[in-house]
Amino acid sequence: MKRNKKKQTSKIKPVSSFMAFVFVTLCLSYLLWMPLGICSVESSLHNIQSKLMTVILPLASILGLIFAGLSFVAGSMNARSHLVLAIIGAVVGFGSPSIVSFIRVLVN
Question: Which residues of the chain have pLDDT under 70?
Answer without folding.
Answer: 1-16, 28, 31-39, 41
